[in-house]
């Protein structure tokens, strides 16, 4: 009996899967009919637009980069053909000349080396020197109530930012000259602590905020950093013109700010002898570098993680952040107040005794010293303060340099081929203290921040000078 019952149960269990199988087969047939109907719908349109859309969507990131690279390469080839008169490649090869492909390869290689700082851009040789070595003065645009202390220019050369001792920051359109007030001195975060002597650092009766002594804009133009008497690094979003972050940490006035090229890594220096690193991607503090024995007055950096600073301890230092070491370059007993990097691993510093020093990475002492680069102006009656080098700027990765003081002119310099010496090209007349300088990447114009007083104090005053932005156009050969 138990064996028969088990057989009946097995029979029933065998019948159920058979019924389910027929139901599933019926559903599959219905699904096949529906799928065949849906497949026929796109074909019935007959316009082929959906097929084109599918092809565009299927383009991968690698294919897109390849397509853009081919487009850029073709553009470079066209420019080279126009520049060389549409020379035929076969004729070039037959005559033993350089072919068009070789010219394009050489141009791309040189541009890559210039972008990475391995090769110096030759710009000084293209500058048209005016007769007599004195150019016509540029355009001065008044904007600030108190002297301009610093200036920065965006990478696209369209917008300049100036800051002043009144704590305000102005945004300028370089081409049209229009200005907008980016932020007021009252917007600054106040530091509730002891004040330092000097009305240029603490809020005065004619201002509602601490003096701004340094500013820098990121490579993409999205962030503006400012710092000064309140010892706080302020970060602004240039699109919304609002402060998005404030980094306290410096124990004294901030005198220099610089973004590492192509990144949002920021370096700040101050009178507290410290070099601080900040990440704007994460909005956080990274590290502090110590080594200077005197107040740090300026900082500059390229795309490498090796900022270079200058100090009143008569030294310039290159910081190897990855190795946690630094190199010391001694300035021969001169207090170094400003710095700018040039192409080919060279940089120039300016001193409060009016001299310029040219440096190379492989030598611990200056390769060239220019004494009295800015002599005292007898007409201004400002005394020795007129000859102090207040600011420096160079064409990005190039050999063209500009220096500013209070002697009534901006001087343009060109580096020699070996980058061990430089010569003066010509002068640009301008009234006032040149406290900030910046070149366009193309070298076609120069902007300067002008003030009635020096950047770091009130040792002299030129009441007839204008506090604002100065623009000088540079004529270049084709």
From TrEMBL:
SUPFAM superfamilies: WD40 repeat-like (SSF50978). Residues 1-98 are annotated as: Disordered. Keywords: Nucleus, Repeat, WD repeat. Residues 28-58 have a biased composition (Acidic residues). Residues 77-86 have a biased composition (Basic and acidic residues). It comes from the Eukaryota. WD repeats lie at residues 141-182, 205-246, 247-288, 382-423. Residues 1-11 have a biased composition (Basic residues). It is found in: Nucleus. The keyword Nucleus applies. The keyword rRNA processing does not apply. Pfam families: WD40 (PF00400). One of its GO terms (cellular component) is small-subunit processome. GO terms for molecular function: U3 snoRNA binding. This is Uncharacterized protein. It comes from Cymbomonas tetramitiformis. The lineage of its organism: Eukaryota, Viridiplantae, Chlorophyta, Pyramimonadophyceae, Pyramimonadales.
């Amino acid at each position: 009996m138990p064996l028969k019952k088990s057989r009946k149960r097995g029979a029933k269990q065998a019948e159920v899967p058979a019924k389910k199988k027929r139901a599933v087969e019926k559903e599959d047939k219905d699904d096949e009919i529906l799928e065949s109907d849906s497949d026929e719908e796109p074909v019935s349109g007959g316009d082929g637009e959906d097929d084109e859309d599918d092809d565009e969507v299927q383009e991968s990131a690698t294919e897109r980069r390849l397509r853009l690279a081919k487009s850029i390469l073709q553009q470079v080839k066209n420019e080279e053909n126009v520049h060389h008169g549409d020379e035929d490649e076969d004729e070039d090869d037959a005559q033993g000349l350089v072919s068009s492909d070789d010219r394009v390869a050489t141009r791309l290689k040189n541009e890559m080396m210039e972008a990475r700082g391995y090769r110096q851009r030759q710009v000084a040789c293209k500058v048209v020197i005016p007769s007599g070595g004195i150019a016509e003065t540029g355009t001065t645009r008044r904007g600030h109530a108190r002297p301009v202390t610093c200036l920065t220019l965006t990478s696209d050369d369209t917008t300049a930012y100036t800051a002043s001792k009144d704590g305000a920051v102005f945004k300028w359109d370089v081409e049209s000259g229009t200005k907008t007030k980016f932020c007021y001195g009252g917007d600054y975060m106040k530091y509730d602590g002891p004040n330092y002597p000097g009305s240029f650092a603490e809020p005065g009766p004619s201002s509602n905020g601490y003096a701004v002594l340094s500013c820098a804009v990121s490579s993409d133009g999205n962030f503006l950093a400012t710092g000064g008497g309140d010892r706080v690094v302020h970060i602004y979003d240039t699109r919304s013109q609002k402060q998005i972050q404030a980094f306290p940490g410096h124990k004294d006035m901030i005198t220099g700010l610089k973004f590492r090229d192509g990144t949002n890594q920021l370096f700040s220096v101050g009178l507290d002898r410290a070099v601080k690193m900040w990440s704007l991607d994460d909005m956080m503090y990274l590290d502090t570098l110590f080594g200077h024995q005197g107040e740090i007055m300026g900082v500059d950096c390229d795309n490498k993680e090796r900022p270079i600073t200058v100090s009143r301890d008569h030294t310039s230092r290159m910081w190897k952040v990855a190795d946690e070491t630094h190199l010391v370059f001694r300035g021969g007993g001169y207090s170094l107040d400003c710095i700018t990097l040039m192409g080919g691993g060279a940089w120039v510093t300016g001193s409060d005794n009016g001299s310029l020093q040219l440096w190379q990475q492989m030598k611990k002492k200056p390769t060239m010293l220019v004494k009295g680069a800015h002599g005292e102006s007898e007409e201004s009656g400002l005394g020795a303060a007129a000859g102090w080098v207040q600011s420096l700027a160079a064409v990005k990765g190039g050999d063209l340099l500009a220096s500013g003081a209070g002697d009534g002119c901006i001087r343009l310099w060109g580096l020699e081929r070996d980058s061990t010496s430089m010569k003066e090209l010509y002068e640009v007349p301008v009234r006032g203290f040149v406290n900030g300088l910046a070149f366009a990447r193309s070298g076609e114009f120069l902007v300067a921040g002008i003030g009635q007083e020096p950047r770091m104090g009130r040792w002299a005053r030129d009441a007839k000078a204008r506090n604002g932005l100065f623009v000088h156009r540079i004529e270049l050969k084709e």
